[in-house]
């Protein structure tokens, strides 16, 4: 095995792959943090838990996994938001968090159908919260035995990934691919895709600039850094938040190159590589997908999440990488210029809200994000 020195790591940069002995590298995978992906199909002896085992795999902002679930009676459950798992700096109105709950509910519906149940979902049974989410439930779900139509997209749930790698700019999703992705959304939603070269050029520049604003604004950068899990042990101990895992990450951490403090310090390798890694990702989009809504109610946000995850599953079925770029859609003051620009570029009119923007393309495989076990999400009445 080559000698690994702090100088070697500094020269390669925080985003580079350090060549390590294969045996040691294989031990750095946080398998415990990813166990819920392996266990989802095993069954838990209660149809509700079987459904929830898939629902907790839903995409959600910063991987905060804010869902808390109370089992009711023999056939129902109620979903609440853990108010300590919101993102007040990058998501001040809880819009993105609510979209994540929509993803959760859609996967619950699909999993229920797979088990032979119809999921009767009631949004905000005690009232729609405003201006922020509160202690009231987000949704109530009742499982009703029957013969619901199984959803073909469900077969992709365990393969779904958020891919933040740079995409292959030599490949562009075909028009058939884009049509299939758009078609997976609810007909009631305004979902669109495009690989138009001029729009792609404009959105690449916009998303890079929006990312720079999020990273270079101290309070929004720190909100992300505070939930960074750096290395195997941190991911296994706290399997929520933003995961940085693998042999190179553990090596960089061990040599003091990649730490929360260094990531927050302008001019360090960790700070600059964090900035440039995401910039490169934004610069390699070859197509985009987005969702607009006529208004911006909590129900609109839940419905957005349900269509978003369906679009991602459709992309997964076609081996198309899918990476949400939410920075320009965020409502904090420093982002205002880019917020207005993205709404202009995507043709939002008459008070429409762009709820989701996603880059599409082709990239190497990535592992699933960490997840907390389904049992940890249950609360008492």
Account of the 3D structure:
- The protein has 381 residues and is of the alpha+beta class.
- The chain has a domain at 33-158 and 369-379: NADH Oxidase, CATH 3.40.109.
- Helices cover 39% and strands 15% of the residues.
- The protein contains 14 helices and eleven strands.
- The chain has helices at residues 6-12, 22-26, 35-39, 47-55, 95-114, 175-183, 197-216, 218-226, 232-237, 247-254, 260-263, 269-283, 298-317, 336-345, and strands spanning 67-72, 76-81, 117-123, 139-145, 190-194, 228-230, 242-244, 287-293, 321-324, 353-361, 378-379.
- The strands form three sheets. Strands 3-4-2-1-11 form a five-stranded mixed β-sheet, covered by helices on one side. A four-stranded antiparallel β-sheet has the order 5-8-10-9, sandwiched between helices. A two-stranded parallel ribbon has the order 6-7.
- α4 (47-55) packs across α5 (95-114) and α5 packs across α13.
- The chain is globular and about 55 Å long.
Brief overview:
The protein is an alpha+beta fold and 381 residues long. The chain contains 14 helices and 11 strands. The protein has a domain at 33-158 and 369-379: 3-Layer(aba) Sandwich (NADH Oxidase).
